[in-house]
Amino acid sequence: MKYLHTMIRISNIDESLRFFCQGLGLEEVRRKDYQKGRFTLIFLQAPDDNSQLELTYNWEQDEDYEIGTAYGHIALGVRGIYDICDKLEDAGINIPRKPGPVKHGTTHIAFIEDPDGYKIEIVDLDTRNI
């Protein structure tokens, strides 16, 4: 078995690409418009990783999406979490959980939000203990 991707629905392609690509450093590797289905799929991945994040944009979606109570978060590993969070905050990205150690542990994490309100956990790989 091979893990392929996680998919989230987005409401604005430009805002989402600015967040994930310019803000977090992911790269767009594939995009396809489905005229009959009226949606676009955009696949992103980190430069040194084959796992992908699929962004689905439904062309005629007028209502906001409900993230739901079962959804947790996406997690991304980084080095230099404090500097990265400073840069993200300077870029206007919401950081509801500032970087720091997890309760009862030594791994440093932060939580940020994308333009649609999805939670993204940033895990500092230098302090990760699991």
Helix and strand arrangement:
Elements: E1 5-10, H1 13-23, E2 27-34, E3 39-45, E4 52-58, E5 74-78, H2 81-90, E6 97-101, E7 108-113, E8 119-124
Parallel strand pairs: 1-4, 5-8
Antiparallel strand pairs: 2-3, 3-4, 6-7, 7-8
Structural summary, described in words:
- The chain is an alpha/beta fold and 130 residues long.
- Helix content is 16%, strand content 38%.
- It has 2 helices and 8 strands.
- A hairpin with a 4-residue loop joins β2 and β3.
- The relative contact order is 0.20.
Task: Output the structural class.
Answer: alpha/beta
Let me know the largest β-sheet.
4 strands, mixed
Q: Please report the total strand number as a whole number.
A: 8
Shape: globular
Helix proportion range: 10-25%
Which percent band covers the strand fraction? 35-45%
How many individual helices? 2
Quaternary structure of the protein: single chain
> In angstroms, what is the radius of gyration?
15 Å
Describe this protein with a few key phrases.
single chain; 130 residues; alpha/beta; four-stranded mixed beta sheet; 2 helices; 8 strands
